[in-house]
Write a structure and sequence with these properties.
The chain is of the alpha+beta class. The chain has one domain. A 3-stranded antiparallel sheet has the order 1-2-3. A hairpin with a 2-residue loop joins strand 2 and strand 3. The longest helix has 16 residues. The relative contact order is 0.21.
């Protein structure tokens, strides 16, 4: 499963985003936030014999793939005890 920048872990909790055009926008509607969180929950709970979570490396070249979107989420998942494959 690819974990993208739409659901990000931050110092203040989860942050919800939608990619529109050429940039990320904040999802402010609580119902849409619940929908996005639930989409990840469903994907995470459907694995029967294992799953690999892929959190992309950020890139400094483009503002839509910044490492600030991905690194905190990766670190959070690793801190939960999810093994890191190398």
């Amino acid at each position: 499963m690819n974990w993208d920048g739409d659901l990000r872990f931050t110092d203040s909790g989860w942050s919800f985003h939608d990619f529109r055009g050429d940039r990320w926008t904040n999802i402010l509607n609580p119902e849409n936030q619940v929908y996005l969180r639930n989409a990840y929950r469903v994907l995470l709970t459907r694995a029967r014999q294992g799953m690999v979570l892929f959190v992309p490396l950020g890139e400094s070249l483009g503002p839509t793939r910044s490492s600030t979107f991905y690194d905190p989420t990766f670190n959070y998942l690793a801190d939960l005890g999810i093994p890191v494959l190398k």
